[in-house]
Design goal:
This protein has helices at residues 141-151, 158-161, 170-173, 196-204, 243-254, 264-272, 313-322, 324-336, and strands at 27-31, 38-42, 55-59, 61-63, 67-72, 78-88, 93-99, 109-112, 118-125, 130-136, 181-184, 208-214, 237-241, 259-262, 283-287, 302-306, 347-350. It is of the alpha/beta class. The protein has two domains: 3-63 and 171-350, QueA-like (3-Layer(aba) Sandwich); 67-152, Beta Barrel (Thrombin, subunit H), CATH 2.40.10.240. Strands 2-1-17-16-14-3-12-13-15 form a nine-stranded mixed sheet. The protein has a six-stranded antiparallel beta barrel with strand order 5-6-7-10-9-8. A two-stranded parallel sheet has the order 4-11. Strand 5 (67-72) and strand 6 form a beta hairpin.
Length: 351
């Protein structure tokens, strides 16, 4: 299918500015692929679609406070630096996005924090807004990271920052409750709906919880600019899948228990680790896998996701898993029923 197939009109008022008051009490639309039935539930009802022995797999990446506000040397002009990826620990080299980028040139120094306690020097241009910077900091790597955390802010997507200021509570709500492995600059948003109470109910009902790690990058928000989807290239993201997860998942499948995958990042990770024989194997490396219809999913029986933007890689994957025409129909219904879209929006369960 072509990119234009995944276009639809999303009213701006349906983009959620804030999350639901309680994580697991957002709305959840349930899509039944076998009957094409659609239900309207709450997210905490997810447990009603799972049985003892079923496995829920989620992405435990932790969002790094990657937004830094500073000043350019000499002029004192205000600048925003979005940390993307650490390139070299010893040299403190990072790939970053700068804004405004037009006047940030190689050799410029950027100052951050009270009393200019952190300095970065621009050493290369990577894209129109991208730069490579070297942080000038005396101390250990641990001290450097601690200092970055003290100065950094929650990296909400640009669309949300255009609607409102970053609030203190974003540091908590733009993070899953099970986040453990720091390294993401974007949250795995389908996981934001899980509460501690819901995970406890999973445990009581012998529903098995498993975690992998995929560090979500800004590529998740990058627009697709080619009509032929086979020509689109995703940005590579680091991922890790343990032997334990592989053993648990394959044992469950052998007993015909269901595998529920939480979010498009988790699905990309799992499908990146599937062998030719259709089994999942341990993985430590990078993936730039892009999933679009038609696609044969090897592991998942169910998928939790959010309501996504038109022409986004997340919407395209949801269509591949739930059947394109059916998901399009469900999105039309979601717009009529005023479901909330995007980062802090409502949930969809495809079974």
């Amino acid at each position: 299918m072509k990119l234009s197939y995944y276009a639809f009109n999303l009213p701006s008022e349906l983009i959620a500015e804030k999350p639901s008051k309680q994580r697991d009490e957002c709305r959840m639309m349930v899509l039944h692929r076998d009957t094409h039935e659609i239900e309207h539930r709450l997210f905490k009802d997810l447990i009603q679609y799972l049985n003892a022995g079923d496995v829920v797999v989620a992405n435990n990446t932790k969002v790094f406070p990657a937004l830094l506000y500073g000043e350019k040397e000499k002029t004192g002009a205000r600048i925003t630096v979005f940390l993307q990826r650490e390139l070299n620990r010893e040299m403190r080299l990072w790939d970053v996005i700068v804004d405004p980028a037009r006047k940030i040139r190689i050799g410029n120094k950027l100052y951050f924090g009270p009393n200019e306690s952190l300095v970065a020097e621009v050493i290369d241009n990577t894209t129109s807004r991208g730069r490579t910077v070297r942080f000038l900091f005396d101390g250990t790597h641990e001290e450097f990271v601690k200092h970055i955390r003290s100065l950094g802010h929650t990296p909400l997507p640009d669309e949300l920052q255009a609607l409102r200021n970053i609030e203190n509570w974003d540091a908590d709500r733009y993070q899953t409750i099970y986040a453990k492995c720091e390294g993401a600059v974007a949250a795995p948003i389908a996981g934001l709906h899980f509460s501690r109470e819901l995970l406890k109910r999973f445990e009581i009902n012998d529903i098995i919880w498993q975690e992998l790690t995929l560090h979500c990058g800004m590529g998740n928000f990058k627009s697709i600019d080619v009509e032929d989807l086979s020509k689109h290239r995703m940005d590579a993201e680091e991922m890790h899948i343990s032997q334990e997860l592989c053993d648990v998942v394959m044992a469950a499948k052998s007993l015909e228990n269901k595998i529920c995958v939480v979010g498009t990042t988790t699905m990309r990770a799992i499908e990146s680790a599937v062998t030719i024989s259709g089994k999942i194997s341990p993985y430590d490396g990078w993936t730039n896998k892009f999933i679009y219809a038609p696609y044969n999913f090897s592991i998942a029986d169910m998928m939790v996701t959010n309501f996504h933007h038109p022409k986004s890689s997340q919407f395209i994957m949801a269509c591949a898993f739930g059947e394109p025409e059916f998901v399009h129909y469900a999105y039309d219904m979601a717009i009529k029923e005023k479901y909330k879209f995007s980062t802090y929006g409502d949930a969809m369960l495809i079974v």
